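Sample entry (144 residues):
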Amino acid sequence: MRKCHICTHKDRYQIDKAIVNQTNYQTISNSYGVTVQQIKNHVHYGHVSKPIQAAQQQQEAKHGLELNALLVECLEISLGSAREARAAKDYRSIGSIMSGPYKAAEILSRAAPGNENESGLKGMREELKALRAKEAPNVETPTS
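Predicted structure, serialized as tokens:
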């Protein structure tokens, strides 16, 4: 039985980290003197270090939570500013106030794993429409 060239390599954990970080295989090959096929076989047969994979998943989860918290904070600030603009009857600024966080929410909802549709974003849109209707039921929001 042949041994995996990457598993016996002196820089195996650095190679595994590079694989988990989705570094281009050719770059890994050039850096560590292994072939692209050896890297592919290492990955295909499930030889990538489980602790490195788990650490990467933890890091990604933490990053996702931080992004979510930032988005929530941005939305809260933007909604507060939009309420102030609405109270001042300055409807022109509402779109620019909400565009940044809205675009970020749209991008994050599309990037979420297993979220091929925009169901989360559609829910957010409906929630914002309901909130607008509740805050100013007699005021029509002008369209741009």
